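Exercise 7. Given the encoded structure of a 207-residue chain, write a plausible sequence.
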């Protein structure tokens, strides 16, 4: 599974997220654990920074508003997406479904719950285009740092606060960063730590 920043040719999926740097490092490292020819394009300047109406400066989107980028990319011919967003912005998938239908204007045909409140697969239409969207909710209460912290606990049997600075400090003492942590971890621990993303990568790997 190839996770890239710049696309020379049309990728299999576009990755949409509100922030990007930490999610890119995690997704790229996880992708290297999976065989396959699929390419996931994680744009270097993601359209989560969209210029909204009546705004002169780009506005950072988060939570459900990340879905708005689908309209822009779909208008350019892209039709497969992987959306990552933090649990702190997530309430329940019915609200996401309503947002996609009413705000993004996607006609939803099928929703598959891969993991309850963690991972979903959605098929539908945007105008005349067939659309497929995978959605991964990051973290238990807040964000992906909670999943990194869980992996550290599984690998080192040490409880680490899910704080970015604390995680970096701990990994530095071990001679690692997040990418090396994932690379040097077994797949069972990865699937337990990053449940949503790994479930989606499993589906993509076997589809």
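Solution.
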């Amino acid at each position: 599974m190839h996770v890239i920043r710049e696309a020379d040719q049309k990728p299999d999926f576009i990755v949409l997220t509100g922030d990007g740097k930490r999610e890119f490092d995690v997704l790229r490292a996880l992708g290297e654990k999976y065989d396959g020819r699929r390419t996931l394009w994680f744009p270097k300047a993601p359209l989560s920074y969209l210029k909204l109406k009546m705004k002169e400066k780009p506005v950072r989107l988060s939570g459900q508003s990340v879905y708005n980028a689908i309209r822009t990319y779909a208008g350019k011919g892209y039709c497969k997406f992987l959306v990552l967003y933090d649990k702190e912005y997530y309430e329940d998938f019915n609200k996401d479904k309503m947002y996609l239908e009413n705000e993004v204007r996607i006609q939803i045909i099928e929703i598959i719950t891969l993991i309850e409140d963690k991972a979903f697969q959605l098929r539908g239409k945007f105008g005349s285009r067939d659309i497929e969207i995978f959605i991964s909710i990051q973290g238990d209460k807040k964000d992906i740092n909670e999943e990194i912290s869980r992996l550290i606990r599984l690998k080192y049997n040490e409880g680490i606060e899910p704080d970015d600075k604390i995680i970096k400090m701990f990994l530095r003492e071990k001679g690692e960063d997040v990418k090396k942590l994932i690379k040097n971890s077994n797949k069972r621990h990865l699937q337990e730590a990053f449940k949503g993303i790994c479930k989606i990568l499993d589906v993509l790997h076997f589809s």
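Remark. The domain at 2-141+195-206 is CATH 3.40.980 (Molybdenum Cofactor Biosythetic Enzyme; Chain A). Students should compare their own answers with the one above.
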